[in-house]
Write the structure tokens for this entry.
Amino acid sequence: MKKTSTRLADGRELIYYDSRDDVVREAADRRPLDRTVTTSEIRRDPLLGDSVAIASHRQGRTYHPPADQCPLCPTEGDRLSEIPDSSYDVVVFENRFPSLAGDSGRCEVVCFTSDHDKSFADLSEEQAGLVLEAWTDRTAELSHLDSVEQVFCFENRGAEIGVTLGHPHGQIYGYPFTTPRTALMLRSLAQHKEQTGGRNLFADTVEGEIADGSRIVIDGEHWVAFVPYAAHWPYEVHLYPKRQVPDLLGLDDDARTEFPKIYLELLKRFDRIFGEDEPPTPYIAAWHQAPFGTLDEFEGANRDDFALHLELFTIRRTSGKLKFLAGSESGMNVFINDVPPETAAERLREVASK
């Protein structure tokens, strides 16, 4: 992998990740952009104990532009975009309309391919592996920022999810705090450790799913994918490396080599869940990594106890119908799932590639 860092016209950082070492990236951003001005602010909710990012400048962000005006496609002639070069493999750049910025963290965009009409599932294993390297590199770089405590790599796919740009891309958030979801995991981790005499909750969960077998979707040599026992979403898969590590930096070469094959197969299956004539399945793919800050508030849990994993889920519950977060889910955070996890796992096994 070759990494080339440059700056856009408004001062934001852009990084090319190339599979070939002989690629030269010297194209300049020719757009007459003013420096980016953000108004991100973190406010803590005293009742719930969580934090909310207030980012009013995002109201003016790009919204469903025509394909020939996509800001994530390469620059072509006088059609100038966020990527100055005429081609690229994988690109990461600072978001022009970030939810988090400055002392409140950092937001980046990850373009998986220059091909506007592809999705992640269409990538080659080599390309998917390069995306993994980019996620890993950005996790490492962002972990050194004083304003970042936890790094979150994710992809929103589909208009139903709220995606405003159709080009295949994801995002990376560098939060200035430990997120509420991770805090819950760390508290459960510490409690389980105390109650079982030091056993690890993640390890016990993965071992339990493998032993049960009914919810296993893919069992690879170095990765295992399963529908969790208490899945929140109609179709939800958790993907774990079999050698437990706290973050993407901890993956060994064997896990990195196998990941593209396993993950691409999962994404292909997601697009087959509802039948061949159905539109692409909307989904969220979310990497869960251990925070880099101190874990003193989670007494009994340490960073190495956490287990890196990816959660992949769709809000579509059946053909033409979405799972809306209504009163119970949005009002009280109590999910109601219409699809039994065992049924979801069986369906995901049925649609395996031939």
